[in-house]
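The instructor's notes for this session suggest beginning with a concrete chain rather than abstract definitions. Hand out the sequence below and ask the class to guess, before any prediction is shown, which regions might be ordered.
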Amino acid sequence: MIVDVALFLAERSGGIRTYLNEKSSYATQSGAFEHHVVFPGRRERHEAGRHELRSVPYAASNGYRIPFGAGALMDTLRRLSPDVVVLHDPFWRPAGVTREAHALGARVIAVHHASAALNAAGLPGPAPVYLPLLKRIYRHAYQDVDAVMSVVDPSSDSGRHATIPLRFGLHRAFRPAPAVRGGHFLYVGRLSLEKRICDLLEVMAHLGGTRELVLIGDGPARRTIAARAAALGLGSRVRFAPFVSDRHALARAYREAACVIDPGPYETFGLVVLEAAASGAQVVACSSTPSAQVAAPLVETFRAKDPQDLALAIERALGRPGDAAAAMALAERLTWPRVFEAELADLERLLG
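After discussion, reveal the predicted structure:
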């Protein structure tokens, strides 16, 4: 039995929601393992492998919630008695969960989804102020786990190297298909400061022209982004669109954009980049984004925090022809069943 514990899981969260939903579907369809997910909810509820624990909302735009301590979490683990516990963040009493899991005979894996730099960039004020505290939190969270899962090297944050790769797959909706490409730029994801969407606004102002920017998603920086767009004279060219849960609709949105742009430098994976590239879209992402390396050469990259280089990457993407064959090859290589078959093999080796 595998139990995933995820503090930042909500209906409008991004890659982690996709990963856990696909993992549950694979477990049900294949029968390869029993899967449970524990996360904060409006009330305590345990059904069909999903365990919601009472909590209070703190980020209405994404549905994130803060649980009432860790007592119900510990009780749930004792009731389930798993073989493996997978922790998806360093904030929901990870040391206590690790001790409880070990007492039950389970192995514990910490998944390095974020980073100290990413978390610090999303807080008010200068990011360096928060880094020492956040790194202490990561080191405390990871010190006694049995393995760390990541696609990047987490050692500078946690003092631990990754021994299990974090893999992501693609829904079958994300395939190249005929589409009428529009003239607008597209961003898909959380609207937060660390995503550096305002860098993209600066580039649009520099490039001139009449292209619109469509932002699909929501988040705490929405007003800041709108205000910056207005200050740059781009108010009429920036359009906010709601979260898209339908994968086929999202794939169409990728294909119909002139260019899909992920300006953030702190992504620990960047699933949107993979989805857009596999759908046949023109894609721009930061060179530090791991998925940009996975999807190369379908992605034009730029140096982190360098708006001029971002502008050049956008111009290259707009000028290049599409490559449907390469997009299809990427989509067929990154299927969720392959991801979970490989992950299960890693867990079996960990269990010995």
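Then share the key points. The first strand starts at residue 2 and ends at 5. The chain has a mean pLDDT of 93.
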